[in-house]
Amino acid sequence: MRDATTADLPAVAAIYTHYVLNTTITFNTQVRTPREWTERFAEAVEGGPYHLLVGEVDGVVAGYVETQRFRPKPAYDRSIELSIYVAPDTLARGTGGALLGALLQRLEGAEYHRLYSIIALPNEGSVRFHEKWGFEHRGTLTEAGHKFGRYLDVAFYERAL
Q1: Percent of the chain with pLDDT over 70
Q2: DSSP 63
Q3: Which CATH number characterizes residue 8's domain?
Q4: Average pLDDT over residues 57-68
Q5: 15, 21, 132, 143: most buried by Cβ count inside 10 Å?
């Protein structure tokens, strides 16, 4: 587990693109361009307070975890949102847990107060994963998203830092 560099962005983008095009795990329906990935990284990670960590298996990026602004209003600045994506061929091998553990270490002593994860449902694996790491269910919005011709619920999970 390590901090991502711009050289990792194509691998990170490939992992995320799989989930955009093939799943309802993310509500994005458009693939991010390489320029969008680069600008996002430069602004949020290199020039901002957020994190992007990658996990490698045999020298290949197998997953990533990122933090981002939870909500745009200044009073939310001590809360952050988390996203974890693991390459489909490396699921259930501990990469997600290792990434989250590394992120939590980085957040120790930081000014952040709460960590949120918003989970598109159904996704029992993600729910179990977050609960294992101390996240608590705080509520569900019904039919908040629409992707692949169906309405989807989202669950809000919270963890104190």
Answers
A1: 99
A2: E
A3: 3.40.630.30
A4: 94
A5: 15
